[in-house]
Amino acid sequence: MDWLTSLLTCLLWLAVATTAAFGLLMVWIFLRYVGIIMRIFQEKPIFIIPRGEPLPEAEDVTFPTRDGLWLKGSYLRGQRSRRRGVILFGTEFGSNRWSCYQYCRGLLEAGFDVFTFEFRNCGDSEGLPDYEPLQWVTDYEVEDVRSAIRYLRSRPDADPRGIGFFGVSRGGSAGLIAAADEPYIRCIVTDGAFATISTMVPYMQKWVSLYSLRWNIYRYLPRWIYVLAAQMALWRLSRQRRCRFPSLERAIAQIAPRPLLMIHGGNDTYIRPEWARELFDRAGQPKELWIVEGAKHNQAVQVAVEEYQQRICQFFLMHLAGQRKTSFEPSPAVMPA
To answer: Distance between alpha carbon 14 and the CA centroid of its chain, in Å?
Structure first.
């Protein structure tokens, strides 16, 4: 049995050495690269943020958050005598509440009411001191969506059946996370939604050669190493910025059986279509993914134009208004699961 004892001893020491090596690797990554990841993570992309003009027919609203802020919103009534449903709209990063019109024009014409609002530290909404919003979703944006839902439930004309949600980019991501445990949201449309870790990791793998002379080694590291480094950076940022970065990867799996339509630009260079597909794969049925060829980030509404309005109307007519037949026939661009 001496040989067995020797073998077990060798395996034990091998396990200890492997654990120690892994621990040293994590310390090295933390000391050498986490600061770089944090700096890049906080850089804001350069793109044109659409902002709309006030609509005189809108009902202006001020509503509270649970942490004591007051947010500004506008309630737009549908252009038909009979309301077909209520839809909460989540704006993209840095935009104002009036930008909703270019996305929701068809919904208003179809008879849906739309409630749009501005996140904290944006537009006319109250700002949280010492908080600088980023393009990434934090628990603050999720709380703002939940506050908007509470407001809609408190209105005298609240729809007891529930509401739909339609969000763009960061607004869509925040809405998905809020909807995960909010059954009042019956169905969801997003355009350009993205998860934090799933977006960070491909960028880290791509640009590691710029920050390390040993990039030929790092390129062969398994993906979970990059995930762990990203999580370490987010942990430090959470403490530094006094907020959390919730996981959309986990939240989207909790949407089903409520219907989900994800829209994404086929030429999106910020959030690549394959990353959107990976996020889409995490969702349960029923779900659809529409990749709009030729559209960049948040530009599908300008590329597809009328088809964009028709698809969104069809989705909410079916899943919110309960109308099973529409005049619009989907083309092969829609990718059912």
So the answer is: 43
For the chain, list residues with pLDDT below 50: 326-337
Which residues, 6+ apart, have CB-to-CB distance to 105 below 8 Å? 309
pLDDT at res. 24: 58
Question: Would you state the structure tokens that stand for residue 184, as one six-digit string?
Answer: 């009042």
In the prediction, which pLDDT does 208 show?
73
DSSP 24: H
Helix (H) or strand (E) holding 7: helix 2-32
Instruction: Identify the pLDDT of residue 8.
Output: 59
Query: Which pTM value belongs to this model?
Result: 0.87
What region, left, alpha or beta, does residue 111 occupy, with left being phi > 0 and alpha being psi -120 to 50 degrees? Answer: left
Tokens standing for residue 126:
């109250």
pLDDT value at residue 336? 44
Evaluate whether 280 touches 249 at the Cβ level (below 8 Å): no
Q: Does residue 98 contact residue 108 with C-beta atoms inside 8 Å?
A: no
CA distance 67 to 55: 29
Residue 1: strand pairing partners: none
* Cα radius of gyration (the chain): 23
219-267 confidence digits (pLDDT tens): 667 888 888 888 988 999 999 999 999 999 999 999 999 999 999 999 9
- What is the predicted pLDDT for the residue at 164? 98
How far apart CA 200 and CA 232 sit, in angstroms, is 12
Euclidean distance between CA atoms 107 and 209, whole angstroms: 47
Cβ contacts of 140-144, under 8 Å, gap ≥ 24 = 140/243, 141/170, 141/171, 141/174, 142/174, 142/177, 142/178, 142/246, 143/65, 143/66, 143/67, 144/65, 144/71, 144/117, 144/119, 144/120, 144/174
